């Protein structure tokens, strides 16, 4: 299958690149149209999207799409893609189905972008409900995040019993970390001394390539939602650690049971007391943690890879 993927490259989550890598590994021919490239000046890109001069960047993406002639167009983070690009690609005569995949909160203004898509897939059932409540005209479905398979064989025999968290701090995340009774490892820019416990902090952005070693070196990975862009859904952090046999410890989310068997494939907390109890159990019983990690690994490989998500997208169209 020939797939055109449109979206921001080099984002903090690497969502687009992970999809492209997985789909190419499965033998598909994949072309990328970058709607935003951090290596290019925003001022230059803004000019390239200006309608009064013909939106040359959008027209170039349209021409590339026309020459490539894909069987499927997937727009990653569709509501962050400039609308003029969606308009140009969408207006191609006889074009392939164009599916938007959305993972962040949006406002009512996103309906104009949604209307240019044949279908919008949401990683969060709460976002799907919001789409329907606001009466967006395009069809919509639930399609959770996933992961590639690049971590499968990258595990460590020696694992730290302390939990690890990789991500930027928010108010909610700081509050959770501040309530821990045992130290953990925090990766990400902006983390400072949190609470009364002395956590190990690596205050810088972590390259995607470093995640297998980080998760493979710990018994458990903590997941705390970002309250600014999530309603009920899961993020990549619910899936990625599993491929390193690292047990995921995550707060309760409405979509969790749609993707995992809580208590067997993932550990779940409702409040800080439950989280502290889980952490104490992890330290006391590393084999229990490894069993959770292995069960999560099996479930992710069976149901939550980007290859599986492509099958779902194809079924939707």
Written description of the protein model:
With 317 residues, the chain is an alpha/beta fold. It has 2 domains: 2-143, Rossmann fold (3-Layer(aba) Sandwich), CATH 3.40.50; 164-303, Glycogen Phosphorylase B (Rossmann fold), CATH 3.40.50.2000. 35% of the residues lie in helices and 17% in strands. It contains 12 helices and 12 strands. The longest helix has 18 residues, at 286-303. 43% of the residues are buried.
The Rg value, from CA coordinates, equals 20 Å
Shape: elongated
Structural class: alpha/beta
The CATH topology of the largest domain is Rossmann fold
Tell me what portion of residues adopts beta-strand conformation.
15-25%
Brief overview:
The protein is an alpha/beta fold. It contains twelve helices and twelve strands.
Key structural traits:
alpha/beta; 2 domains; Rossmann fold; elongated
Topology summary:
Elements: E1 2-8, H1 15-25, E2 29-36, H2 42-48, H3 56-68, E3 72-76, H4 83-90, E4 98-102, H5 111-114, E5 119-122, H6 125-133, E6 140-142, E7 164-166, H7 171-178, E8 185-187, E9 200-202, H8 211-216, E10 220-223, E11 247-251, H9 256-259, E12 267-269, H10 272-284, H11 286-303, H12 306-316
Parallel strand pairs: 1-2, 1-3, 3-4, 4-5, 5-6, 7-8, 8-9, 10-11, 11-12
């Amino acid at each position: 299958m020939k797939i055109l993927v449109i979206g921001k490259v080099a984002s903090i989550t690497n969502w687009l690149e992970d999809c492209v890598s997985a789909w190419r590994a499965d033998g598909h021919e994949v072309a990328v149209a970058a709607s935003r490239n951090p290596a290019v000046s925003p001022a230059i890109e803004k000019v390239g999207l200006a309608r009064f001069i013909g939106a040359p960047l959008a027209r170039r993406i349209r021409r590339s799409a026309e020459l490539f002639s894909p069987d499927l167009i997937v727009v990653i983070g569709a509501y962050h893609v400039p609308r003029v690009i969606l308009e140009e690609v969408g207006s191609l005569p006889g074009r392939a189905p164009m599916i938007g995949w959305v993972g962040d909160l949006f406002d009512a203004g996103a309906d104009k972008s949604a209307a240019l898509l044949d279908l919008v897939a949401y990683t969060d059932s709460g976002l799907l409900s919001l789409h329907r409540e606001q009466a967006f005209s395009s069809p919509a479905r639930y399609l959770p995040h996933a992961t590639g398979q690049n971590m499968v064989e990258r595990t460590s025999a020696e694992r730290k019993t302390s939990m690890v968290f990789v991500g930027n701090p928010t108010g909610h995340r700081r509050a959770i970390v501040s309530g821990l009774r045992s130290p953990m490892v925090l990766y990400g820019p902006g983390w400072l001394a949190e609470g009364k416990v002395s956590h190990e902090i690596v205050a810088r952005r972590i390259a995607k390539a470093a995640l297998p070693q980080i998760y493979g070196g710990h018994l458990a990975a903590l997941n705390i939602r970002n309250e600014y862009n999530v309603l009920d859904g899961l993020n990549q952090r619910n899936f990625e650690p599993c491929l390193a046999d690292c047990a995921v410890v995550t707060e309760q989310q409405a979509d969790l049971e749609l993707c995992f068997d809580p208590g067997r494939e993932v550990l779940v907390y409702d409040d800080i007391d439950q989280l502290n109890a889980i952490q104490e159990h992890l330290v006391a019983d590393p084999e229990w943690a490894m069993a959770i990690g292995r069960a999560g690994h099996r479930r992710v490989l069976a149901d939550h890879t980007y290859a599986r998500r492509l099958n779902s997208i194809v079924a939707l169209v």
